[in-house]
Structure formats: structure tokens, C-alpha cells
């Protein structure tokens, strides 16, 4: 595999991670159980500790203190992830993404075909 420059590798890692996060939120239960809510909250906090880019992880942890994960419903979780991604976009000088109808923008391809 060709060696990627640091900036390219960091950007690819970011794109993949955001894709996973937004797609997870688009499939998160509309009415989660207490256990599901705890699982999502823990997942996000563990991700912020273990994320391989140190600078990103540090910033993400600060963001989580200001904007704790919203786990009460699919819409709340999807909107939260979109808003937090926009905070990172803002910091990096990127465009702000339109969060309306965000779930439809992240299909998982896992709907059952009957
Ligand atoms: P990305 O920001 O990766 O977005 C990918 C695609 O998602 C976009 O093309 C667009 O279609 C869509 N999108 C954009 N905004 C949203 C949104 N708000 N909601 C839903 N979809 C959206 N990089 C750094 O250099 N410094 C950091 O501190 C840093 N922190 C990060 C923290 C986390 C938790 C993550 C996951 C990544 C971080 N990154 C950081 C990487 C950075 O956010 C980008 O992923 C990377 O720069 C590549 O950017 P991109 O322009 O390809 O689009």
C-alpha cells in the first residue's frame, strides 16, 4: 500500500470516522432503551479518548464537555452529531453543513429486502 502523507491520512481517517458516526446515528433507535442510551454515550466518550489523531481527540474531548452527546432519540443523536461535526468544520475553516433531514443523507445499505 502506498504511504499516505500525514495530512492525507488524517483527512481520510476523519472522513471515514464521520461517515461511520453519522450512519450509526441514522440507524440509532427512535425510542432507545436506557441501555442503548448508555451504550451510545459510552461509545462517543471512548471514541474521543481512543481516536488515533491526538490533536483531534483532545479537541473532541473539549467539544464533548461543551456539547454532551444527545441520546434521547434518533433525531436528537443525528442532529447532535451533525452540529458537533459543524463545530469541527468551523474550527478547520470548512463550510457549515445543512443538518436538515440529516438521517436521509446517511443510508446504511442494511435495510432488509423482502
Ligand atoms: P469531512 O469533514 O471529513 O466530512 C466528510 C463529508 O461529510 C463531507 O464531504 C460532507 O459531505 C459531510 N459533512 C460535512 N459536514 C457535515 C456535518 N456537519 N454533518 C454531516 N455530514 C457532514 N482534523 C484536523 O485537522 N484537526 C482536528 O482537530 C480534527 N478533529 C476531528 C475530530 C473528529 C471527532 C473527527 C472524526 C475528525 C477530525 N478531524 C480533524 C478531521 C476533519 O474533521 C475532516 O474529517 C478532515 O479534514 C477531512 O475533511 P473533508 O473536507 O474531507 O470532510
From TrEMBL:
<feature type="domain" description="ERV/ALR sulfhydryl oxidase">
    <location>
        <begin position="6"/>
        <end position="106"/>
    </location>
</feature>
<dbReference type="GO" id="GO:0005789">
    <property type="term" value="C:endoplasmic reticulum membrane"/>
</dbReference>
<dbReference type="GO" id="GO:0060904">
    <property type="term" value="P:regulation of protein folding in endoplasmic reticulum"/>
</dbReference>
<keyword id="KW-0560">Oxidoreductase</keyword>
<dbReference type="GO" id="GO:0005739">
    <property type="term" value="C:mitochondrion"/>
</dbReference>
<dbReference type="GO" id="GO:0016971">
    <property type="term" value="F:flavin-dependent sulfhydryl oxidase activity"/>
</dbReference>
<protein>
    <recommendedName>
        <fullName>Sulfhydryl oxidase</fullName>
        <ecNumber>1.8.3.2</ecNumber>
    </recommendedName>
</protein>
<dbReference type="GO" id="GO:0050660">
    <property type="term" value="F:flavin adenine dinucleotide binding"/>
</dbReference>
<keyword id="KW-0285">Flavoprotein</keyword>
<keyword id="KW-1015">Disulfide bond</keyword>
<keyword id="KW-0274">FAD</keyword>
